[in-house]
Amino acid sequence: MESLIIILVGVLSTVAFYLLLSRNIVRVILGTAILSHAAHLMILAMGGLKIGSAPLLGEEAETYVDALPQALILTAIVISFAVTAFILVLAYRAYQELGTDDLEEMRGTDNE
Amino acid sequence: MQLLIFSILLPFLTAALIPLIRRRIGNFNIGWLVLFIPVLLFGFFASQIPMVSSRETLLSSIEWIPSLGINFTAYLDGLSLIMALLITGVGSLVVLYSIYYLSPTDSFPHFYAYLLLFMGAMLGVVLSDNLMVLYVFWELTSMSSFLLIAFWYHRKNSRYGAQKSLLITVFGGFAMFAGFLMLYAMTGTLSIQETAAVMGQLTEHALFYPAMFLILLGAFTKSAQFPFHIWLPDAMEAPTPVSAYLHSATMVKAGMYLVARFTPIFGGTSAWFWTITIVGLITLFWGAFCAIRQTDLKALLAYSTISQLGLIMSLLGMGSAALRYGNTEAGALYGLAIFAALFHLVNHSTFKGALFMVVGIIDHQVGTRDIRRLGGLMALLPVTFTFAVIGSFSMAGLPLLNGFLSKEMFFTASLNAASMPGLFSTSWGWLIPVIAWLASVLTFIYAMIIVFRTFLGNRDSKAVEKRPVEPPIGMLISPAILSILIVGLFFAPNLLGDHLLKPALEQLLPGISGASPDSIYAWHGVNTELLMTIGIVLIGSVLFITFDRWKGIFKIQPAGWTFNALYNYALASSENAASFVTRSYMTGRLHQYFFYILLFFIVSTGGTLLLSDALSISFVQDAPVSIYELMLVLVMIITAISILFTRSRLSAILMNGVLGYSISIFFVLFRAPDLALTQLVIETVTTALFLLCFNYLPEWKREPLPKRKKARNAVLAIAGGLVITLTGLSVNSADLFETISSYFQNSYELAGGQNIVNSILGDFRALDTMLEGLVLFIAGIGVYTLIRLKLKKEAGTDGD
């Protein structure tokens, strides 16, 4: 199962990298969103999968799955949401100001 | 005794105190308060003279970074004491002088804070036994020198001079640092004393000569030796007390100190002997030659300082041969050169300090330092004139003044070096006394220029309207004390020689008896040295009188063929090169930046994976895969790939949503209920947000990229994904570490929570969670501001 998930992570990252390399700002944002999906799955897979029950002590199980990656991912989900929201609004404002969603056309001439 | 270490720290502590008390006591009083520090330290070091003259040393150490062998070790021997007395003694006089020199509009707190910073750093340099500590203080002197040269930072020349001195001395300091590291690699100790003890066996080591030359580079840049001398004349933009203190009496002597200190380590090799002697002699001659043509009194003194530093440097070079010959007659004869070097080091500080103060007085009272506009000041400034005569004549090496004694010794040493048979003599040896003599003639000429062009002749009342008067008495005290020392040292040189110079020499050249003269005499009978001096006076006088006829000689050097031009060219071209390189990759294109990042990731991580043989794939530890999980994975892969090919942005967003929801299903399957819930909520909000924004964004166009670039991006993306997959698989198949998660399973006992994930977030790592909240908050402010910004602007345009 872990290896399968890791291969899935690889495919997701490839897609995300390709999107990040493009010039359209929305594709770049999509790339970051997909990359964080990949990262979350990767962290979870590294902790081992499906061994033991959910990390709730009330279950009174023999073993529990690794809780630490879950805590990390929970933080990461929230932060990646914040970042995605911010760049989305940034893209929206940039389009309003500059009239383009093409990063190449957004390049200013100041400070160069 | 920890008092020694405290003496280094005291100036720093006072410097830190100045900003706190400046408002309370006013400008004038800060100077008087600061004056207390060097006087106190001078008293402390003076009280150590009996200890040193009985051939003892003082060592005081506190641990700093013991794991790296770096201890704050202060070591006081004869050499250190001479330097420390100069630093605090001249320091006291300069502080006193500066109280009257600075104008009320100058920032006294800054000036004295920098000056104290320098004083502490300089004491640190001469008292540190640990190479790393010495290096830190060494760079601190460069920094404080930079601050002091740029004290009048509104002047362009000040900034230029400060930058130049910093670049050159820090370049040298860096080289020296590398040399220190090589020394450490050879000896395994950072203590100078311990290094000197084991160094004799290491002359064959491959790093011996690189270390030597790198350390010499540090000494030469700091002491303004040819061709690094160019920073010193530009450093004269500093206030005159600073020039007298840093750029004449103390900081530029740090290079001398370093060479003397490392003589027991490197001395006795011919590379050390010839490098230092030749560089010193060239500097001696070139400095004197350039000094004559200066029209600014301070520039003249700057070149004369360069020349005198070259003199001391060459003496240190000649004297190092003593270590090769050991306790023989030859060793003693060579060793005399180091005695002369130390003697002249002290003498130079007295007469050059006095001369700088005289020039400061002239500048202060007359308003110009230009020799062409000065003249006839003798009647108006009789006291200043007296000091100028004493200082200049001592510099020229005339009798009844201390410069005569050390100059005679210099001639003796150069004659010794030329006539000595053996390893270091070559057929060119006779050049040493010849260059020494020629440079001394030039020295005589510029010393006369200072006296005669400034104080005698007719006063040009058109050029200088103000009728100058003697300065306040406070400005005269310091040069007066130095002048008394200049005369006093001539009549009682052995007081200095017996108590300081001899102990210092014996510690530098252990086991060589008879290197220092029994006592210093002014009269040796009619010998070659005396004839040389008489020749200097005669020829020098003739040349001085006929100066106007032969000054065309300076036009031989073509304009633009100077080291300054070279420096400026090098600086400008390195700036151009740096901005060219920066511009070539800082293109402002996001996809290019990401291209570099991705490429770096693939090369570094993928390369490490291959080279370190870490690549291993095994499926042994894997949990079993059920059919619906496999189907879910396939769905996600297909969805992800189709995002790349869709033309409609709406379907791209929805497919991203599919990915997110599938992941939340995985979270359920992988026993992570909290994650599944959070992911569901977040994915919903994100998709809604995307759709909302799309309302305002244009439809997708086809990427206007050439096929070749698309292929390149695809290759790079696939390579990146491959590296991630392989790394993940390798990590998964190895089990290198114990898990730390079992600790958190005690969450009920430790944190009172049944839900382990929640306990981690809310208790074990609560600070992280709080900062996560902060990130959300900042992002929220960002979003809010971006939207508000627009409203404001619209309101503004509406108003128009």
From TrEMBL, chain A:
* Coiled-coil regions listed in the entry: none
Native organism: Planococcus maitriensis
* Superkingdom of source: Bacteria
Q: Which NCBIfam families match?
A: PRK08600.1, PRK12660.1
Q: Which Pfam families match?
A: Oxidored_q2
What's the protein here called? Na(+)/H(+) antiporter subunit C
Question: Any transmembrane segments, and where?
Answer: 6-21, 28-51, 71-92
Localization recorded for this chain is: Cell membrane
Topology relative to the membrane: Multi-pass membrane protein
Tell me its family: Belongs to the CPA3 antiporters (TC 2.A.63) subunit C family.
This protein's UniProt keywords: Cell membrane, Membrane, Transmembrane, Transmembrane helix
**GO terms under cellular component:** plasma membrane
UniProtKB/TrEMBL annotation, chain B:
Residues spanning the signal sequence: none
Q: What are the subcellular locations of this protein?
A: Cell membrane; Membrane
Keywords, comma-separated and alphabetical: Antiport, Cell membrane, Hydrogen ion transport, Ion transport, Membrane, Sodium, Sodium transport, Transmembrane, Transmembrane helix, Transport
The UniProt transmembrane annotation reads: 25-46, 82-102, 111-127, 133-153, 165-187, 207-232, 244-266, 272-292, 299-321, 333-362, 374-401, 430-452, 473-492, 530-547, 593-619, 625-645, 652-670, 676-694, 714-734, 769-787
Q: In what residue span(s) does the MrpA C-terminal/MbhE domain sit? A: 709-788
Topology class, membrane = Multi-pass membrane protein
Q: Where is the MrpA C-terminal/MbhD domain?
A: 634-699
* Gene Ontology biological process terms, A to Z: proton transmembrane transport; sodium ion transport
Q: What's an example GO cellular component term for this entry?
A: plasma membrane
Task: Note whether Cell membrane occurs among the keywords.
Answer: yes
Q: Where is the NADH-Ubiquinone oxidoreductase (complex I) chain 5 N-terminal domain?
A: 65-112
Q: Name one GO molecular function term.
A: antiporter activity
What InterPro entries does this protein map onto? CPA3_Na-H_Antiporter_A, MrpA/MnhA1/PhaAB, MrpA_C/MbhD, MrpA_C/MbhE, ND/Mrp_TM, Proton_antipo_N
Domain NADH:quinone oxidoreductase/Mrp antiporter transmembrane: where? 128-420
- Report any Pfam family annotated for this entry: MbhD
Presence of the UniProt keyword Ion transport in the record = yes
The record's family statement is:
Belongs to the CPA3 antiporters (TC 2.A.63) subunit A family.
Q: What is this protein called?
A: Na+/H+ antiporter subunit A
Q: What is the lineage of its organism?
A: Bacteria, Bacillati, Bacillota, Bacilli, Bacillales
